[in-house]
Amino acid sequence: MQQEISKASFQMQCQRKHFIKDKQYHLLIDDDRIKISETVDFQYSKYLLDLNFESLIYWKADQDQLVAFGVMYNKTLKWFHADSFDLQHLYKYLCGRVFFGNISSIYENKEMLGSGASSKVYRVVNKLTHSLYASKCIRKDYIYKREDKERYNRMIQEIELMRKLDHETLVKMIDIFEGEKSFYIILELLQGESLHTFFKKHSLTLTQIRQIISRCLQALCYLDLNNIIHRDLKLENVVLKEQGKVESVKIIDFGLAIYTSNNQRQLCGTPGYIAPEMFIEKYPYTTKVDIFSLGAIFYKLLCKKPLFHGNTSEEILENNKKFLWNNHLKNCSDETIDLIKQMLQRDPNKRISAYQALQHPFFGERFIEQGIAEESPHEIVKTFPLIKPMQIINSNDNIPEIKIQAIRGGQQSFDQSLGSNYFPSFDEGYQKPKNGSDHIIE
To answer: What is the pTM of this model?
Structure first.
């Protein structure tokens, strides 16, 4: 039977089926390598497989149970049979650490949920558990089109990041597969629509808006604790887990997400949601950029108008950069205006954090706790809408005639880097909130 001999290793018994007599083997996963040996000491292991995304593991199932796994050896697929309980543990141990092959052995396609230029999303059912999921199918010809492997590396980065996420407010990645023509990312199934689509059909109450922003702030608290920047928060990337229930929203699409330790500080995201500091070349922005993006979502839900106006993505981006925002907050309460101003502070050092925002009077005492879940339910994500706002990946290549003042030499303050008059005042036309908060945009 299977046994774990340490947190970093895994061990079980298996056998190769032969015509005359089956041959017994021992499997050990240790030091990021799979070793399969006839002897228990593993001094000589006939089959060796590195535990990385260049490796493929195949599966056989029969009557709702796993019966064998397969590895390539000398260009031949070798099958190893084992106890179903052990195979389930092996499957779970390898999830997200290697690509699995032959997706049809585990998942059955039910219907297409949506499609884009490079991928399609299908509703699928797991043949072993009969649970529904979503399969994001990414074409290999798109991934490998660039010789620098930038798209492949970005996909791998998304996978490595998502496999570590486990929070009730974030979509959960379940499995990853590689086929002959596509990569497949199996995701939790979200039964509702995107907040972008839902908001077009329904008028939201302040209570519903409070629930949405609270859930998103809980997600940002979790990401902040794990040093992750989403970098593309917008209405399209917030999806209802249950149809019609805004209190069940989850954040999706980690295609642009990075760790805070990542030195790449390029301008990216969607026009209208980009934080001011991201427009400064090489500025070391932090998780606070997601707070600004959520503030733009908050503004849109409150005012039914975008924070930055424009007839094209380019116009929106230009107004986003110059902070030429729309002025529609006059009918909101003092607490509401105060919170949104703190989220939209132009200086990230003065901008409120996710944890601080959850303690704001706008939410009341019941929203102070972060509420991080111990585990997420295993079910999926409806795909992004068929029409997505333009995403900016490389500012210098995609934004004509935008002059970005870079920080050079020693670290300057945010105000010094842009100039004190770079942005118009957020308070034009408003009175300061009566609660006397000094956390307002100057």
So the answer is: 0.79
